[in-house]
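Recap slide: Thiol-disulfide isomerase/thioredoxin domain protein, sequence and predicted structure.
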Amino acid sequence: MKKFIILIIFYVFSLSLFAQQYEAVKKFDPTRSPEKDLKIAVEYAQKTNKRILLDVGGEWCIWCHRMDEFIESHKEIKEFLEKHFVVVKVNYSKENKNEKFLSNYPQIPGYPHIFVLDKDGKFLHSQDTGVLEKDKDYDEIKFMEFLQKWALK
């Protein structure tokens, strides 16, 4: 019985350590491996019961930066996103189009683009972010509705 309790304590402790070690990538980086990033995200999503958002774009993309700034400036959206999703930035640029990785998903009509995956990395949804826009920014209501629709209940 004592060994069982120690094993449970070790397991809980290791989960909290892993949860603290995951850090989302903040920029699109042509040198990163989306395969490796997704593998780490899946492990974290399984342990934390979250879905995965693949955020596809590049540092060249003004709307990609607008989306990042939009999320950062809307506390409710940022907190909901962090609570329910693991975000993986996937670079698409002249330097690295990540064609092999992206060939696993539907064709992308424009950037940024979001793919929703379940916690095991299985594809669920392809989201054109253009429909989430309003004027020269994103629409808070549409963006939150999108996140709420795809968050695990």
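The helical segments are 2-21, 34-48, 62-73, 75-84, 99-102, 140-150.
The domain at 23-150 is CATH 3.40.30.10 (Glutaredoxin).
(End of recap.)
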